[in-house]
Amino acid sequence: DIFEVLGMTDGIPNIYEDVLHGKQYIDACQLGKIKEGDPVLMFSIDGVQLYESKQSDCWIYIWVLFDHSPDQCYQKKHVLPGGIIPDPKRPKNFDLFIFPGLHHLCAIQTEGLPIWDGTLN
C-alpha cells in the first residue's frame, strides 16, 4: 500500500511507479476527495494520422481506468474509447467535443449506473 510506504519514508516514495504514486493523487486521497471504491480515470487525447500523406486527420480521446495494478490498467479492456473529433487541424475548443463524455461521466458518478444481471433471474 502506498500510504504504508509513505509512512516509512517521510512522505516521499522510493520509486514513482505510476500516476497513483504522484503527489496530486496522494493529496486527494488524504483530503478525502478520493475515497475507497471511487473510480480513478485518466483522460488522454491526441491527433491521429490515418493516411501516410496527411498530418493529423482526426483527434481521438480515451479514458484509462486506474482501478487496477499498473501492469493491468493499460491493457485494452481497461482503456475505454471516449470519442473521435474529425478535424485535420487542432480543434480550437476541445471542450465542445469532450463535454458530452464528461456530462455522461458526471451523471454516472451522481446517479450511479444500475446494471441488470441476467444470471440472477
Provide structural commentary.
31% of the residues lie in helices and 19% in strands. The termini are far apart. It has a three-stranded antiparallel beta sheet, covered by helices on one side. The radius of gyration is 18 Å and the shape is extended. It has four helices and three strands, in the order H-H-E-E-H-E-H. With 121 residues, the protein is of the alpha+beta class.
Describe the sheet with the most strands.
3 strands, antiparallel
Return the average pLDDT rounded to an integer. Answer: 80
Sequence of strands across the biggest β-sheet: 1-2-3
H/E element sequence: HHEEHEH
Rg calculated over all Cα atoms: 18 Å
β content, as a range? Answer: 15-25%
Runs in which pLDDT lies below 50 for 5 or more consecutive residues are: none
The number of strands is 3
Which bin fits the share of residues in helices? 25-40%
The best one-word shape is extended
Q: Which structural class matches the secondary elements?
A: alpha+beta
Distance between termini?
Answer: 38 Å
Number of helices: 4
Summarize the structure.
This protein is of the alpha+beta class and 121 residues long. It is 31% helix and 19% strand.
